[in-house]
Amino acid sequence: MKSRRYPEQIALLPYIGKWTFIAGLIALLSGTASTFFLFSLDRATDWRQTHPWIIWLLPLAGFVVGWVYLKLGSSVEAGNNLLIDEIHDPKSVVPLRMAPLVLIGTVISHLFGASVGREGTAVQMGGTLADQLTHVFRLRHAERRILLMAGISAGFASVFGTPLAGAIFGLEVLAIGRLRYDAIYPCMVAAIVADQVGMAWGVHHTHYAMSGVATIGFWSLAAVLVAGIVFGLTGMLFAKATHAASAFMKRHVAYAPLRPLIGGVVVALAVWIVGTRYIGLGIPVMVEAFQQPLAPWDFFGKFAFTVASLGSGFKGGEVTPLFYIGATLGNALAPLLHLPFPMLAGLGFVAVFAGAANTPLASTIMAIELFGPQIGPYAALACVVAYLFSGHAGIYRAQKVGMLKHRLPPVARDRKPPV
């Protein structure tokens, strides 16, 4: 083995310089795109709330979005899964049209009252814009993987205002049980700078007031462990229900634009029956979950509305609805487990997401960024337990099993866990 002409630290400087520049450029593009998206989402939400009759046009809006994707977006309809697939097996640069299509599709979904999130849109825009730099910098396959991961991190960080969680999410979401440390520096830079870009443009993220965290003791830890099991099972059920609804619609409705039209009819009728509490992002309800007891069925209402919306083909994301489901479920569990409402709402907020996305580290860090360091030990326990109990499936079909979550009994050891 040849000795280095320069110390390793000196030889590292060109790498640092190169990826600082590229990740900073990704952050500028992604942070700016997320800012435009968030402002558009606010305007769409405000307009829907002042004109509630628009919900009756949701079926038509779904048909239009479905038709546009059928004609222009068939190659990018896989969304987040396409990005993850390209990281696992790089083939071709993600078409630029993914970014405007998912942005417009998500804003329309929120304007007319579908129950979808926003992370999917930001991540897809971040990954797509980042991938356009592949040819500009003549990057090899291995470097392109890093580029896409940095775009995912930047999109996640800028839409939620959680830079450290965003960075880890880009490393953790690809495979269950493994992290890609070769991309840790670009992902960190992209996530941190993208968050700053959003704030420079005037983005203000929702503040969730965390108070009344219980003192660490035997009962509080045992109660959080039980809650983590419930959160993990809920995340697993959400992922399976969403996939099952999507498969059912594809199996029984051959013409793609008709799927969101049918889903739109179902959601609009449900709104007519139960009201608008479970559509859109639902941030006001999440804020309430940290302040006072809520109806114990709120989490199921959001669960059903989101499965109907995403399963029928409306565009958006799963993560914010998972936050809603988790926060309201935690609120419902608080009196049963004799723990404060804000504490259980916060733990549910991140732990249901941890179970559904198989990202316990990113979820734990998100809890600390959103709610403060005092929640850290409880969040770590809840997120890890939720991750373990959610099985080997998740909301992202392209996510691979890098390592089993636990050792299976000898009889079942040879069974391949679902991806």
Automatic annotation (TrEMBL):
Pfam families assigned? Voltage_CLC (PF00654)
Cellular compartment(s): Membrane
- GO CC annotations, alphabetized: membrane
Its membrane topology is listed as: Multi-pass membrane protein
Q: Which GO terms describe its molecular function?
A: chloride transmembrane transporter activity
**Where along the sequence do coiled-coil regions lie?**
none
Which keywords annotate this record?
Membrane, Transmembrane, Transmembrane helix
Cross-referenced InterPro entries, in alphabetical order?
Cl-channel_core, ClC, ClC-type_chloride_channel
- Transmembrane ranges, per UniProt, are 21-41, 53-72, 93-112, 146-171, 183-204, 216-239, 260-279, 336-357, 377-398
State the organism of origin: Rugamonas rivuli
rRNA processing found in the keyword field: no
Its name, as the record gives it, is Voltage-gated chloride channel protein
